[in-house]
Batch of 2 targets.
Target 1
Amino acid sequence: MNFRKSRRLLLLIVACAVMGAGAGLYAAPETPKTSVAAPAKNEDLARLKALIEEAEKALEVDDPDTASDMADQAEALIAKWSAERLKRPEEAALIQRLKAVEDQYEEAISTPETEDGLKMAEEIVPLGTEDLRTQSAQVQAAEQGAIFDFPIDLNDKVLAWVYDFTHEKKGFVEGALSRATQYLPMIRQIFQEEGIPQDLAYLALIESGFKNTAQSRAKAVGMWQFIRPTGRLFGLDGNAWIEERRDPVKSCRASARYLKRLYEGSGDWYLALAGYNAGPLTTERAEAALSSSNFWDMARSSHLRNETKDYVPKLLAAILVGRFPERYGLTVTQMTPYAYETVEVDKMTSLSVLAHFAETDVEALKDLNPELLRATTPPGHYALRVPPGTSQATYRALARIPSGQRLDFTNYVIRRSDTLAKVAARFKVKPADLLEANNLKTSQFRPGRRIQVPPPSAVPIDDQDLKPVTSQERAIIEQPLAQIPSIDVTQPGAHPVESVTVVKEAAPPQTKPAEVAPTPAPRPTTHIVKRGETLFSIAERYRLNVNDLKKWNRIRRNRVVVGQVLKLRKT
């Protein structure tokens, strides 16, 4: 996931209005109008112009990080504007300049993003005719009898990536799929709950190789490679003690919701994936320029970058190989599924101390809590994940750890010549970390006081990560993240393997109903399409299969129009 994605997400709710809603497959959700006084509007416009100018100057002096920060602030400002305002000439001109900044930034960091995943702007070597026939036959044989809940187009691009995954990149893919055995049950459970195809779990293979610690040159972090602004929009926070983008469960749910948002905006899973990689406005522009909503038409044009052109076929190949690696000659090591129990820790405690008193493995605690940056719980209360069956022992350990021994931090007595900044620099931590770890104010940092110095963070902490989430950022999140469940290892959510071959089109699974629910009211026989509704949202509302809904209403494309009367049952 790259820099551009954050920018484009903030404009997703108004993209159709700016770029032309008629070009999309679905009608975009209606954006609430914001009433703003004229003086405030003028101030906002001046502020936007100043931020863009600062970003442009930063790019001129080869300072992409400052350009990124300025663009972040500009996007947060734009996020509260109405669709009507975004179309005004002066505002639209500034938005175009902002897009130019984004494009220049992306070019500045256009080298391969990460060694952990497969997101590289590389051109796959095409297969010859005979090799294509051979590879196609292998895929057809390997996938015989399988059902996919994600549409798979089997073409030369996809076959070339299947070949690459099973030959040139075989070692990487084997390692990634071995790591995946820990997380796939959890990912499939969350994707089912969020109502998106479970086969999209293999997106983590090409994003990060299923590594929670993956970090790209563009500062994308975690298994699902969120950059800071996009992560915050979907509820992933970060500070000096935790980085939720590294948390496999929280980031997985955020990724599912982002993908679902993109699908509802475009009406096509391939376009949603292209938007996940390059930003939704990229596909909007390509669709408008080509008068086509077909991803493969876009991939043959100059409107997408090579990385985005390869992104969809690469995922399709990852799904094909990931579902049945042994049929492609890959060796995958089965690892223990990611499962845990949760313990409430009332105050900061080092994992090494807790592991000693609870007679458990400190590495197991680190593996279950990869969001912890300092091998310690943060100040205040924290829900710590512990290995299954150890929660009671952990609670008993917490009760008997002496208060003065909870931390394995370095003890230090402040000297007369010391300043807060000097001591922080000596121990390679931030001044705020020292104050927070000791529950001190700056005025209390005095000579003679004994303090405890926390270890340095496991990863570099961006100053921007320490800023509180703004109300504008929070307003874009449609709903808060649900409480994350622990995963039952006795029910790993095995993927269905049944009937026929690779399918061309499939509907996303419906969210499973609650175990105990009131008797539902009788389903109506028809539905009148309202503004902002999509075929997918209507199917989800009535718990119908999208393909059935299309068949009953003789809909060839995934488009519905306001006022259209849809049949909700077979007649």
Target 2
Amino acid sequence: MKKSLYFILCFAFLNVLHAMDEEVIVTSSLGGATLAEIDSPIFVITGDDINYTGSTNLGDSIDYLLGVNSSGFGPGVGQPIIRGMGGTRVRILSNGKLVRDVSGLGSDHLNDVDVNDLQQIEVVRGPSSLLYSNGTMGGIINIVDQTIASKDFEGNNFNIGLERQTANMGTSGSFSYKGNVNGLNLTYALKEVNFESHEVPSGAIIHEGNPEAETTLANSDLATFSQKFGLSTIEDWGYFGFSLGKIENTYGIAFHGEEEEEHKPGEEEHEERIQADTESENVTIEGAVTNLRGLDKLSYFFQANDYSFTEGHVEGEHHEGEEEEEEEEHAPTTFTNESFEFGMKMDIGNQDGGNRQNVTINASQEDVAIVGEEAFMKPVDSQMLSFGYFICRELDVVDLDFGVRLDQVNRDGAIGNTLHDISESDLSTALTMGWDLANNVGLTLGISSVARAPSEIELFMNGTHLAAARVETGNVNLESERSNNIDFSVNYENDGYFVNASVYSNAVDNYIYLLDSGTKNAKNLPITNYRQADADFNGYEVEVGRSFTTENGEVQISYGRDEVVGTFGSGGNVPRITPIKNVYRFALENENVTYDVKIIDVQKEDDIGFGESVTDGYTMVDFDIRRSIAIGSDEELVLSVFGRNLMDEKARNHTSYVKNEVPLAGRNFGIKLNFNF
């Protein structure tokens, strides 16, 4: 981190940079607009709904949203999928800045995010996310906290949290502080999670096509320790601040391709554990200067991140003389990502008058390397430069949002002994038009053409990917994907009744996917290659419901359904498409108590791609009960009780590469206490 700190000190004295201003206006931090002013489909999950419920991975915490799903690899890993697209087609942001980990290099790699003490999580579906950040064709998930405050805190606020879950005999504890001390805004938050291997329904685990009677998924434990510190000052001219963050994870890999290797006759099998250890350090400086000549605001940030992911075998007992040989055979693999990024956003004109206009510049350097037994890709250096122009106009008849972004991506890598310097220049545009009609009807039409340059793994992968149990080969001749998307939304609300419906058609040119060659290597693993073909993604999301007031409080009942169909232009289904999902929800909220019941019905997926198998449907019944108890004048105790998978359903994600070996958790109950003072 010494090099990181050197650059940060330099930029700290250059008060002329930044990218996305994270000042929260009413509800949404994206683009600096209120939720009512945003025509694109944005979900906002409040901080209370995250902070006061059970700890889980990012994907599982949002997969009840329509159009949003998760690709699981055990309780610690849940990579989000939006409208049938995952991986690098979905951007994970922290306060508007890209999270740079190695989750894109393996389906068993978690998203390196700190979900403690959040203000909210924002989800934008589809390529229209270009209007709010470094958009991509799937969408964006923005995790928002107040670590670097852009407004002064009032008073001092402390929170202590304790949690217990049954399915994993897990515990967690958290602490956070926000306050203003002598004109400086201070924040600090830490969280520690310790989950043992989680329980699953009997017969849910399937190895080599045969169900097992095990009720505990071995190697599905998780331990996390995170902390973050922020400091900022607010002045008449704007604000300036910095933050330090660190996250450490240790978790078991519940399935690994190597487990399928056959043992020699008479050879004794050793109990072994495959474990992942991650560590990240992040330093960010950001600020804004207002009322400059010709500009309403100049915002800037600089961020440096060091990330490492080490995966290796933890051996059981050895026979005498075997230890050295086994340790050599099972050397650990370390994935690293060292990155630097700076950004600047210039707000032009009156941002509060419905005529928002800004210009953005982002530049980043990212070095990814893999060392060890599973080094299936040689080091890759990536440089990215992006220029964007965005404008919002609130006219008498229609609201217009238009964005254009030019991305220059350079990647230097190698396959074998051949070096490759690959450069892509992509222009992306998005237009959203919104109409407020009579009778409480709102219409939104979005048109976009968004490009995505091939990722490191798609270009330079060249070896055995044991987590996915296959051999993967990249293709340096891949071209950028281009999503040509149109979506149409209707919103209606009157007398407590509401309808929200969206339909979209997303034609992706040069869609990148893995194709099974039909052959296997010496260890009986299938050999796959990255290929391109035109693909179409068509789908819809619809929600109907009613909210009303009773003697017991505010009640809301709703039903939602989403579906996406992915097909190749030449015929056949795109693999690992999310199944149809129905969501039934009942919520009751009064002054001190909130009840929330969700029934998530996932249907059987039998429209499968080449090499896939049918996945049975399942029904999840979840509940959350939260009660707030006032203690004194400024103290509050929040008691949360929650249940997951109450029917103890055998459930598996069709999108997961290990859906049979790593099913979803069984019935789980939990309790959480938060003391605010």
